Every structure is written in structure tokens, then in C-alpha cells.
Amino acid sequence: MPPDFDWNNIDTVLLDMDGTLLDLAFDSQFWLQDVPLALSQQRAIPLENARQIIHDEYLAVQHTMNWYCFDYWSERLDLDIYQMTTNIGKNARLRDDTVPFLTHLRQSGRQTILLTNAHPHSLSVKIEHTGLDQHLDLLLSTHTFGYPKEDQRLWSAVQQQTGFNPERTLFVDDGEPILNAAKTFGIRYCLGIENPDSTMADKSFQDYPSINDFRSLLPSIDPVAGPAR
Questions:
Q1: For the packed helices 35-43 and 70-77, what is the interaxial angle rounded to 10 degrees?
Q2: Residues 112, 105: contact at Cβ < 8 Å?
Q3: Number of neighbouring beta carbons within 10 Å of residue 117
Q4: For residue 225, what pLDDT is reported?
Q5: Which among 161, 179, 159, 163 is positioned nearest to 171, based on CA atoms?
Q6: CA 69 → CA 20, 24, 119, 120, 199, distances in Å?
Q7: How much of the chain is in helix, strand and coil states, percent to nearest 5?
Q8: pLDDT higher than 90, residue 159
Q9: Torsion-angle region of residue 211: left (phi > 0), alpha (psi -120 to 50) or beta?
Q10: What's the order of all strands across the beta sheet hosting 189-193?
Q11: Full-model pTM
Q12: Who contacts 166 (Cβ-Cβ below 8 Å, separation ≥6)?
């Protein structure tokens, strides 16, 4: 059963990218497989040792800007994260339900804004290979603001730039801590994605409605009052 949002009260839809509009399998493969393998080869250590090092490094900065920062990881691991990402860009994939959903939202007259913690280089590589930018009104990387979505200062800065009304905004993300941050800021409608990674089992959300296919929402999305944008 899709969530029963009052679409008459929603003007703006803020959307996460990885795991929400794109298949998170790309990032899972890169950060959990490719990076540990490269570290193993570079340091001439067993792969399992490299995995443990990477795991500990990730946990140390989780939910901070560094966790998403290519410069940080390039320096910390002495790996060319930029080039490694470019090399596998062709593997980036839109979810099957992404284009129908974004097309329907635009046709309904609502503003669609991408808000991603992804590094700008990662964003540009993924846009190049998926054409995601063609289906959105605005694309924002939190790196340009200096704070991740977990930080309340980010939401204030984005609101100042875009003018979105939290009471009339839907935010969609695959991470519950980030949905919590949006809710804390005052965003009225929050939605979780149960199947961010096509290679992994679905996840559940404790405090938010969630879906595994955007197309389940389409019948309930009425046009906004007035001419379509």
C-alpha cells in the first residue's frame, strides 16, 4: 500500500540520488569491493586485512562530510578515487522506476530537486552515464555547501538558496538517519526507499512510510493548481 500523502500540499520534491534515483549497487561495488582490492594491491596485504582497514576508516567518519569526500579518501588511502570512479562510470544505473516517477512529477507541475551527499565528481560521472539531469529541475551536491544532509546547517542553506517551504515539501532518501535530519528541520513529508541496492535484500524503516517502487505513487499524484511548470 503506497503512503497516503496529501499531494495537494506538496509543491517541491527533494530527492536523494544513490539508492533513491540510482541503483546503489554501483557505490556498494566501488566502496566495498573495488577500493579494498586496490588498497590490498597497493599495500601488498591480504584482501581481508584491507577490508578491515577500510571498514574502520569508514566508521570513523560516518555521517560527516569526510565520509563523502573524494579528496579525503584519496589522501587517506593514497588511492586515485577520482580516476577509479571515472573508470567505472559506465556501470552507473538509473532505477527502472526513476524516469516514470520524475516525468510524472514534472508533468504535475511540481519542482524536483536532487539533493545528494555525493561528491561533485561522482555526481558528474553518474550524470554523464545516466542522463539523470534531464529529468530534474535542479541538482545540488551538499559539498558546495560544506555540510552533509545529516547536519541541520545544510538544510538551512538549501532552503535559503531554493526557497522551498518545508511544510509543502516531500523528501525521499534511503537512509533513516538522513530522513531524521530532514524531519528535524521541519520537512513535513518524508519517504524511505526499501530497495536501494538491487544486489541486496530490502530494508525496513521504523519511523517513516516507505516504498520499493516509485510507480506505486503515480495514481495518487494530482496536478498542482494552475498551469504546469
A1: 30
A2: yes
A3: 25
A4: 62
A5: 179
A6: 20, 17, 6, 9, 25
A7: 50, 15, 35
A8: yes
A9: beta
A10: 138-141, 111-116, 12-15, 169-173, 189-193, 210-211
A11: 0.94
A12: 159, 185, 186, 187, 188
